[in-house]
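Fresh eyes needed here. I'd like your take on this protein's tokenised backbone:
***
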Amino acid sequence: MTREQAWNLLTQYNKEPFHLKHAVTLEGVMRYFAIQLGHADEADLWAVVGLLHDLDFEQFPESHCIKQQQLMKEAGIDDIIIRATSSHGWPHAVDIEPVSEMEKVLYATDELTGLIGAVALMRPSKSVQDMELKSVKKKFKTPAFAAGCSRDVIQKGAELLGWELDELISQTILAMRTCEEDANQFNA
């Protein structure tokens, strides 16, 4: 699946700038991690998984990670992409446990990018470019801040990858720096 095909499918079901920004952020984050973790030959695949991971969320939030499987099958999307995008809803929405490194990275970074993005909005620069680990760690420990970003899922994601939480946060900040400009085109 090309990026253009993925974008066309995404925008068929998603119109809100917030959701498009999140999709583009995850696209860039997944591409970054594919390259960093030795999967550069699959960087486009990882990026498409990031772009499409919330395909159904805007229109079908009550069946998130379930409805998108049907939508993707109808669009003729490869089972690898369907499984990977759906696995980020484990165990709350689906019983598809993240197994591959690509699935684990998506699971670990989905909620975390939301938290890091919220921290960025509180900074004078409104950017991740000058963000440090300690800024995110401070807000991570404040449950009321960006309460919709599950700290349990973020922690579980680090564990699935076999990483320390600090490493996951630091690497995700670096990943977000690579795609911040693309994602910011959707700022309201």
Observations:
- The mean pLDDT is 96.
- Residues 111 and 148 are 8 Å apart (CA to CA).
- The chain is about 65% helix and 0% strand.
- Residues 3-186 form one domain.
